[in-house]
Amino acid sequence: xxxxxxxxxxxxxxxxxxxxxxxxxxxxxxxxxxxxxxxxxxxxxxxxxxxxxxxxxxxxxxxxxxxxxxxxxxxxxxxxxxxxxxxxxxxxxxxxxxxxxxxxxxxxxxxxxxxxxxxxxxxxxxxxxxxxxxxxxxxxxxxxxxxxxxxxxxxxxxxxxxxxxxxxxxxxxxxxxxxxxxxxxxxxxxxxxxxxxxxxxxxxxxxxxx
Length: 210
Known about the structure:
Layout: E1 2-5, H1 10-21, E2 27-30, H2 43-48, E3 56-59, E4 62-65, H3 67-77, H4 88-104, H5 111-117, H6 121-143, H7 155-169, H8 178-187, H9 191-195
């Protein structure tokens, strides 16, 4: 497998966590979203992913984009360890939380949107994350055990940790979100979350390396 990734991309990080949890070895092709006007806009990358976004994963003779589609494929083809619970209610909760982050928070504060916001980008990002986290904190108070849904790591957790990293980067006050903070702290102690961390990627700048 070949993963087209950017060290700081939260969508790429979700996929890196899934690959690490499932023990799938892969090669990384870094795509720098800032250099050369954005390497994702190159003709070569556009031919592979017309949306011109990371991540993209070449695996089993196909090329997939969109982080959740990739993770679902890995779940379907390499089911251990499981990232979706067997219980239909818990499974729905995992998908709900993942969608809440992937559709309701992250796209509103990603690079392409922030470019449009000019000088207001920090304030915009903080507002988007804060409103999303207010809802998420309430949801997690009903679903969480050790992790987002019960005590097993799920697809929801793969979405949560990178989004909290975004929140910290945009200096969001995490004080009002004790459940989000507790779950994230526990997840960051797991090896799969450590090895996939933005501070430990091949394209991480020296000053940001762990």
